[in-house]
Design brief:
The structure is a homotrimer of 173-residue chains. With 173 residues, the first copy, chain A, is of the alpha/beta class. The first copy, chain A, has a single domain (4-171), classed as P-loop containing nucleotide triphosphate hydrolases (Rossmann fold, 3-Layer(aba) Sandwich), CATH 3.40.50.300. Chain A has six helices and seven strands; from the N terminus they run E-H-E-H-E-H-E-H-H-E-H-E-E. The first copy, chain A, has helices at 15-26, 46-58, 72-79, 90-99, 104-114, 138-157; strands at residues 4-9, 35-39, 63-67, 85-88, 122-125, 160-165, 168-171. A seven-stranded mixed beta sheet of chain A has the order 3-2-4-5-1-6-7, with helices on both faces. The longest helix of chain A is centred in the C-terminal third of the chain and has 20 residues, at 138-157. Chains in contact: A-B, A-C, B-C. Chains B and C meet through helix 6 of B and helix 6 of C.
């Protein structure tokens, strides 16, 4: 069965670069010509579009990219058997679910059920959002709570959990 | 002498569940039928009441609960000799002290003096609140500073310090 | 060649005290009578002036202090050969650069080039600012991103990286 690796950390903690190195280390081989990048980001505004473009520019030809803002579990099922998958990132997926009025708990449970039965590895990038002062508005608190719970759920089924600090990996599990 | 364990982490990092498991691992026995839950939370609003109820629902019959928003040191002294105590949490206690116009430094020093002389173990849950951007308003900065200092004081006398990441314990001390 | 040590953590996580202990551990000796404190803070307001005064009060006679809000690399070059340097802190230096309209990337690259060729050790304090919810305003997000990248750059050339939690050092590199 494929290995699930969760890589968490604050903004600009170097999570994506660590995750990309791990995914490429598991690919490519004779059987895996590519690693598969599953992008959950949607370009809602110019700032977001520029972040997505910067991420794409850094990735080499070793990657094939699938954009999937909502049906992450479906994207994993569809790409299984074709190489290691990098999901970047869980927090944006949660944002898309919540903004779209979907039940993130149902979607999260489906993801957690699908991960252990994947044949190819899945490396998931997520964000630590709960270590600042309590946000003023209740929507931000609700998002913060959901993000923390989703991280816990995925970490519970992950084979490996890494906390990124200043671009360096700290092994948690 | 009882062991002091401090469990810190961001919001929804799984601190309470880790702390509860540790407390129950130290209880119950022939001499300790229960673990003692010392709740510092006050239900100031509906959101808080709902969080408290969710916490209570998760805890089993193995617990006896003491609500103590202000005199935490008194609650520890009063419950010593009756089993391991779980304090949840230090940050809400600090909030109560500051909102009530009490001197948190005096109360904090009294707590730090009382911890090493407890006969039964004390497991304390606290929050990391200082790893976001600097808050705009000075009251939030003052609270953030106080929370960080209080965590340092308790960590200095603790036998064990754990940093919770995505529900997993990272040993710091 | 001198050792570079990066000490990161949230607000009031005990970073400065850990850094000061490390710097004094490398000084003083027959050849190094003092450790050198390079302060990047500027007293923009009364709160900041009070923080700076509190830091100064804690430091003993074992230190000589150099205030340098902008030309950090120049300050390192000028003090090399006179003892271990403690830079407190990288995040305030970045703030000064950005507020002054300087290009922090150019200044950051110059710092990263200078660190490995220092003869005497350099201990650098910095802040984790990216683990809260995403800030509302774009300037705060830009600062948060810059701070995270600068931390990564320095961590990449550092010999040792420490993450401070509740006053305790967690070794990352």
């Amino acid at each position: 069965m494929g290995k699930t690796i969760l890589i968490t950390g604050g903004a600009r903690s170097g999570k994506s670069a660590i995750a990309e190195a791990r995914a490429l280390g598991l690919a490519p081989s004779a059987s895996y010509p590519n690693a598969i990048y599953i992008a959950t980001a949607e370009a809602h505004d110019a700032e977001m579009a520029s972040r997505i473009a910067a991420h794409e520019a850094r990735r080499s030809q070793a990657w094939s990219t699938h954009a999937e803002p909502l049906d992450l579990t479906g994207a994993l099922v569809a790409t299984d058997g074709r190489g290691p998958r990098l999901v970047d990132c869980l927090t944006l997926w949660l944002t898309n679910l919540m903004l779209g009025g979907h039940d993130w708990r149902i979607a999260g449970r489906a993801l957690v059920a699908a991960l252990p039965v994947q044949v190819d590895p899945v490396i998931i990038v997520t964000n630590e959002v709960g270590a600042g002062v309590v946000p003023d508005n209740s929507l931000a608190r609700e998002f913060r709570d959901a993000a923390g719970l989703l991280n816990q759920w995925v970490a519970a089924v992950a084979d490996e959990v890494i906390f990124a600090v200043a671009g360096l990996p700290l092994k948690v599990k």
